[in-house]
Amino acid sequence: MKILAVDSSSITASVAVIDDDKIVSEFFMNAGLTHSQTLAPMIDAVLKNSNTEPKEIDLYAVTNGPGSFTGLRIGAATIKAMAFANNKPCVAVSSLEALAYNSCSENSLICACMDARCDQVYTALFENGSGIISRVAEDSAELIPDLTEKLAKMDKNIEFVGDGALACYNKVIESDASEKYFLLPEHSRYIKAHNVARLALEKYKSDEFCMAEDLSLSYLRIPQAERQLNERLSKSER
Fold first, then answer.
1. Which CATH fold topology does 2-95+191-219 show?
2. Dihedrals phi, psi of 41, to nearest 5 degrees
3. pLDDT in tens, 59-107
């Protein structure tokens, strides 16, 4: 099965084509450009480099959140358009779950953290048990001090991954200098599209897929523009 997978949920972007378990082609970018500039050319390049036509893709996968509101919408719109045009199914993958697949330490907890600004992160906990990743806690938005306070009470080794990992790691070791915390190297903290594809294949086999029109996003928080509008409306009503 050929899968085209896309991630544009954070500052980085990644696109991959896999054929069953084989990574055929993958591009990753962390150049600070907007996803509207980079995503379409990356998809075009990854298809050309894998000698694959869009109609040959059997399944389209995309991270559906949490993450950047704009980035998520760009990624989802792109995948939905391609899947719709080729009448192929889609799979939505949690950004945090895709991050957990970067783990390199067995028998540890994985704390996936994505920067949500204002001293907050989108986060979820997973367990790497002998190479098998399983979810421990659902995706949520939390203040960094609240999250690190919870982690300090846990008695397992904890591995931080994601673009919010450094902030969480630095915060928790301020008050807990134990050796149970590990920070993945910078180049390993970002989502790789081949992991999105791997998760999509597992979900597809479990009948967790949809057609393009039913693909939805998981924001966890309402967009900042909407929050600011609600605040202005609330003030005007006083």
1. Nucleotidyltransferase; domain 5 (3.30.420)
2. -60, -35
3. 999 999 999 999 999 999 999 999 999 999 999 999 999 999 999 888 8
Domain residue ranges of the chain, discontinuous segments joined by +: 2-95+191-219, 103-188
Cβ-contact 194, 3 below 8 angstroms: no
Which portions of the chain are predicted below pLDDT 50?
Answer: 223-230, 232-233
Q: What is the pTM of this model?
A: 0.91
Evaluate whether 64 touches 220 at the Cβ level (below 8 Å): no
The backbone region for 177, taken as left when phi is positive above 0, alpha when psi lies in -120 to 50, beta otherwise, is alpha
Pick from 113, 128, 117: which is nearest to 160 by CA?
A: 113
Gap between the Cα atoms of 208 and 216, Å rounded: 13
CATH architecture, domain defined by 103-188:
2-Layer Sandwich (3.30)
Whether a cis peptide bond, with omega within 30° of 0, leads into 66 is yes
- Can you read off the two tokens belonging to residue 103? 């783990």
Spatial separation of the C-alpha atoms in residues 28 and 12, rounded to whole Å: 7
Distance CA 81, CA 79 (A): 5
In eight-state DSSP terms, residue 210 is B
Six-digit token pair at 217? 């996003």
Q: Which two tokens stand for residue 181?
A: 């915390």
Distance (Å, whole) CA 175 – CA 44: 48
> What single letter denotes the amino acid at residue 140?
S
